[in-house]
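Notebook entry, structure prediction.
Reason for the run: the old model in the group folder had no record of what sequence produced it. Starting over properly, with the input documented here first.
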Amino acid sequence: MLKLLSLLPIASWQCRTLPCNPFAPAMARDAVNYDGPLDAVHASAFPFTFPILCGLRLARRRGVPFYLTPFLHLGDPDDPRDPTRRQYTSRPMRWLLTQADAVFVQTQQERAAVVAMGVPESRVVLQGLGVEPRECTGGDRITARQAWGLAPDEFIVGHLANASVEKGTVDLLRAASMAWAKGHRFRVLLAGPVMTNFERFWNGFLPQDRVIRLGEIRDDQKQDFFAAIDLFALPSRTDSFGLVLLEAWANGKPNLVYRAGGPGELVRDGVDGVRVPCGDLPRLAEELSRLAGDPEGCHRLGRQGLARIDEFRWAEKLAIVRERMMRT
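New structure, fully documented this time:
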């Protein structure tokens, strides 16, 4: 029903009816009726246009600034018809961007995309994300490996994300399987909630014994996760930044990513990690094999990533937001 209703070519109406959205009439009602203290409204994130529209209506009714953090997923830069980019830059989302008094973006690539969609440059604020090393470091490598059945000298590739096609979990395991078939030795440690499309893939995946699935993990387990691995892999097409990449660097671990979205801009190829063209499974398998066979080179990349952490402190990132909101 929502899909049919969304075909009406009115941007504000499409914001209400995109089928990927929650449909919550009570939220819309409360946004109109709220009369408490209010200086500004901040909304996030695409593609969930229904709650963002509720925030916009509240801001307009109360006459306060409306701020938007879209977290645009721009997909494969080499594919002009990338379906992720088409979804995140569709008519209702372009319209919401132009309604905001300020749009906070995470990368230069996202900034350029927002400006190209009609938002004045003066309204676009390059923010980026931050990391607090104390929250993700200090894990016990030996104890964690023992608990998860990993040998002390094994090379471990970690992946912390929603296990799914979109986050690159399926591509990672397919590439790993290609490397294993050529005799390369490493194991993959997966952590995070599991999506349906990954479960379908997993049911037909043969070398399951080389993959450890932790499922969702607690914050203290995240510290152990990063301590236990040697390389962090996120061949995702749907990350506007990739906060977990900062957490890997904070632990001195390099990142292996697709050349897409935030990770493709954040990781410096051959300096603090490796970038691979989207969907290039042979190349992804080659890099997994190369890094697993060169632990010292892997450590060197990780040390370069660790040296960058001072660029990504929450205090500085939030100061950017605070300063802009005080000016509007």
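Summary: The longest helix spans residues 49-62.
The old model has been moved to the deprecated folder.
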